[in-house]
Amino acid sequence: MAEPSKSNILYVAHDTGLIGGAERQLLELLKGLDRDRFSPGLVCLEPGGPVARAAAETGVPVSVIERRWRWDLGVIGRLRGVIKRGGVSIVHAYLGLPGFFGATAGKLAGCKVITTIRIAGPRRRISDPGERLAFIISDRIIANSHAGVDHYFRRWPGRGKTRIIYNGYDPADFEAAATRSRADLGLPERGLLIGHVANLTYLKDYPTFLAALAMVFERHEDAWGVIVGDGERRAAYEGLARDLGIGGRTLFLGHRRDVLDIARHFDIGVLASHPDYSEGLSNSICEYMGLGKPVVATAVGGNRELVRPGVTGLLAAPGNAEDLAARILALAGDEEMRRDMGRRGREFFTRNLSLEVMVARTESVYRELLKR
Predict the structure, then answer these.
(1) So what's the pLDDT on residue 125?
(2) Buried/exposed 311-340: b ≥16 CB within 10 Å, e otherwise
């Protein structure tokens, strides 16, 4: 139980074995939260995952409420019990089913509820109706992009409950010089590195990225593709790379905890987002910018809030491998352009994407709700 002067905040999240953008931002928030004012706890809907382990390393109490099946409504009652016993003031739930279960249990327990928006397009998942319900009953909705708010509330009520809070990062993580060599990290010791950091799921448009790489490699014999991330489609995408004849020059590094060490060696950071999915605010793009890397991204959702064409990077038409390849080639052939765009991206990052700003704005929402 927290000290009386503290407010208990309970976070509810998936822990499916992959740490994606939402999970990484949750962990950053837990690290930066003012522990003199707020006492965080975490409930995961899956056992034994990396989110729970990482949260526990920051001193956050973690519990698991495992579902017997996807829509196990018994989770709501068990979660309500955790909320009541813990004297929770605010439930802050992350995405889809955690949003539905967390918001419903929080309301039944009589506490304030926050849900989140982290994408800007349809996911075509069965959790969508539950997510909509969570938005209706929430007291506040925190979105990490204007694009996400525009998507969800174009036709549905609730825009007035939203607050835009961009992703936040610890600047110290990005200011350190590269201390590990390419060889230490399993990267080619020479050549142009074209990096793509994202989980290997249908939500990211790896087929378009790989097809674009094949075109780039025809022009640049010293170029390499570096893919950091894992997921259920890894085997399929590795097979596609072989079919395109680029398997030998495209590295699939899987899930890595040293992403920033790897990305420090990128010459170009790429994000290809699925045309039907869009993006909220991509952690990958933010991290490329924090490292001073020029960005090539597909022109969807929040990507357009981060990448200013010709200033911090270049935007390509979604689902268009030829256009994506052309943008990558433009940067690959111009070192000065890469350097200038990387510098301006770093300036944007410093002004808008610090962990301090993200945590302060989130805590401001908490204080606002606690006064009501």
Answers:
(1) 53
(2) ebbbbbbbbbbebbbbbbbebbeeeeebee
**CB neighbours (10 Å) of residue 350?**
14
pLDDT for position 240: 98
Residue-wise pLDDT for 157-194, tens only, equals 788 999 999 999 988 889 876 778 999 999 999 999 99
Domain limits, the chain: 7-168+354-371, 172-352
SS (H, E, C) 223-287: EEEEEEECCCCHHHHHHHHHHCCCHHHEEECECCCCHHHHHCCCCEEEECECCCCCCCCCHHHHH
Phi-psi region of 102 (alpha: psi -120 to 50; beta: other; left: phi over 0): alpha
Residue 176 neighbours by CB under 8 Å, 6+ apart: none
Which tokens is 162 given? Answer: 């939203």
The predicted structure's pLDDT at residue 177: 66
**Helix axes 50-57 and 21-32, enclosed angle (nearest 10):** 10
CA–CA gap between residue 34 and residue 38 (Å, rounded)? 6
What pLDDT is recorded for position 126?
A: 41
pTM attached to this predicted model: 0.81
Whose tokens are 């994606």? That residue is: 20
Asked if the domains 7-168+354-371 and 172-352 are classified in one and the same CATH topology, the answer is yes
> Could you tell me which of 76, 40, 75 has the C-alpha nearest to residue 61?
40
Which of the residues in the chain have pLDDT under 50? 1-3, 126-127
Domain 7-168+354-371 has CATH 3.40.50.2000: yes
Q: Which fold has domain 172-352?
A: Rossmann fold (3.40.50)
Q: Report the alpha-carbon distance of residue 310 to residue 333 in Å, rounded.
A: 15
